[in-house]
Amino acid sequence: MTRRTIAILGATAALLAGCATTPNHERATHSPKGMVAAAHPLAADAGVEILEQGGNALDAAVATAFALNVVEPNASGMGGGGFLLYYDAKDRSVSVLDFREIAPASLEPRHASVDGKLNSSTMRYGGMAVAAPGMARGLLKAQAEHGELPRQAILAPAIRHAEDGFAVSEGLVGIMESKVDLLLEDGAASAIFLEDGLFTPAPGDVLVQKDLAATLRNVAEQGDAAVYGPEPAERIAAAVRARGGVLEASDIVNYAPAERPPVSGSYRGYDIVTIGAPSSGGLTMLLTLSVLDRYDVGSMSFDDPAFLALYIRAFAAAQEASDLVVADPAFTDVPVDELLSDEWVDRTVAAIQNDIGGRLALAANEAGGHEIAHVETDHAAYPGNTTHLSVIDSEGNMAALTQTINYWFGSCVAIPGMGIVMNNEMSDFSFEEGSVNVPEAGKRPRSSISPLLVLKNGHPIAALGTPGGRRIPSAISQIVVRCIDFESPLQDSVDAPRLHIDAADRKVSFESRIAEETMQQVADILGDGWSFESRGAFDAYFGGAQGIWIESGADGAARLAGAADPRRDGSVATTRE
Ligand code: GLU
Fold it and tell me: Is residue 288 part of a domain?
């Protein structure tokens, strides 16, 4: 970030001095200084606490991440992994840290097969679903490199919440209920989360996690040796093997996070910066935007059938292209430059024009007759996994961090005495022969995770991301289009209805706030071969985005605008003045 932008933020701070002085947890909020958007209010507060102690965005992101391990234990934690995207305002550099889980070294093809054929049921839950975790090692490395506060300060809020407990929300209780049978299969998991090891708590009950508190205290004192040292590594591996897995202590001791080059593209003059392999999500998002960039989207509206048809074709092409080639870059050569080339965009735009170009202008035709399925999501146990947090500090440093144990409660395997819940990331491999993403020893499973930073002329503009598995790149690209093309504020863009496309099945899922009449017209434009599914009005299936956008206030000065997704329990917290 330049001095100029810092000065503007400073001026806004002065202007707002004397206004509200307590952290706030509204969904949409504005701050002159630091801001944290995360999936739980206590976690967002943890980040703000660190900013107020003089920590930077990276310190705050790591503190928030560890706090999420405690207060959103169903979604992420030291038993899992993730990806961090960080903009350092001092030198205007962006770094990517991949702390994705890695398949055990002793994995054999038979472990992933039934009757000699790859089969995803082998690795959905239990010990075989578990890959070597990366979170503590990855985030402590990032904090040591970019952070400013001592590690003990970063871990303090998480330790406090694990020790003192926190009130479980209705949402968390619903999620526990949906997983209770699997939790009951695991003695350590049921001891942590179920009362008397048997019953789900009631909303408002306080969940204390003493073993997790002890592990976090050890992490504060010893660093990652508290998880990756030979003794704790053997304790973790033994518990996973006891549940049928093949994880060895050496898989954990040898775990190495990877620094990756960011991948980026230009969209309407903004730099869109995200992550590449082993995630396909960032590439899918960039390719989608690169096609849309060839069209005058700003002259359309989001619910214009012509725009939606264009978006659907662009996203489907992008998803197909990235799915085909993206896997762990240590195992396959991912042709990023070729993918992100003008040739690919030229070819894709030509195909779209050839197939539906003539019908784009006919969108207002009488449409109808296409079958639209209706899917009800059970929101008591809202579906999903994973968590995303965004931080921007007063210097303009930005962190976008998505972390996960994959499904809610991951493999449903917990580590006795350590309070750690292990991931089921092995199920993110592909179980189709010939895929670049088949399970292999020592390989990172492909991810859809795609945290995003927006810059303009080197200046920070936004940090953004969401959980939602395959819906991550569709959710984020739609939020970006709404913010940039339709000039909609971030919170409105996050709230607005979304759709998702499954290219292989030619299936479009959409929130019911998009009128069926509109989708009938979209179906007419797209032509044969597509199917459509209407889901809930605010459906957690479409993710739970948390973001911060540096926007102009009414007085023209820059300010931070935070947004959390109404589809999940997100929250934005700001520094006090
Ligand atoms: N395991 C998923 C992935 O890496 C987590 C992301 C999500 O489901 O939100 O793609």
Answer: yes
Distance between Cα 190 and ligand 1 center (Å): 24
Average pLDDT, the chain: 91
Q: Are residues 416 and 547 in the same domain?
A: no
Q: Is 448 in the pocket of ligand 1 (CB under 6 A)?
A: yes
Same domain, residue pair 462 and 481: yes
pLDDT value at position 16? 27
Q: Is residue 575 part of a domain?
A: no
Q: Write the DSSP symbol of residue 565.
A: -
Q: Which of 122, 288, 386, 574 is catalytic?
A: 386
d(CA 387, CA 406): 10
CA 118, CA 113: separation in Å to the nearest integer? 4
Verify that 116 and 155 share a domain, yes or no: yes
Indicate whether 240 and 328 sit together in one domain: no
Residue 21 annotated to the active site: no
C-alpha 425 to ligand 1 mean position (Å): 8
Whether residue 545 lies inside any domain: the answer is: yes
Q: Is 467 close to ligand 1, i.e. is its CB under 6 Å away?
A: yes
Q: Tell me how many domains the chain contains.
A: 2
**Whether residue 359 sits in one domain with residue 394:** no
Ligand 1 atom closest to residue 384's alpha carbon, by position in its atom list: 8
Cis peptide before 278 (omega within 30 of 0): yes
Q: Average pLDDT in the 120-132 region? A: 95
- pLDDT tens, residue by residue, 420-456: 999 999 999 999 999 999 999 999 999 999 999 999 9
Residue 199 is given by DSSP the state B
Task: Give the β-pairing of 93-98 and 81-88.
Answer: antiparallel
Domain holding 500, by residue range, is 260-379+451-566
Residue to mutate, 125, 382, 385, ligand 1, most ligand atoms under 8 Å from C-beta: 385
Residues 163 and 64 placed together within one structural domain of the fold: yes
Residue 423 beta carbon below 6 angstroms from any ligand 1 atom: no
> What are the pLDDT digits (tens) for 139-192?
999 999 999 999 999 999 999 999 999 999 998 999 999 999 999 999 999 999
Q: 300: how many CB neighbours lie within 10 A of its CB? A: 19
pLDDT at 378: 60
Task: Name the nearest CA neighbour of 547 among 494, 482, 496.
Answer: 494
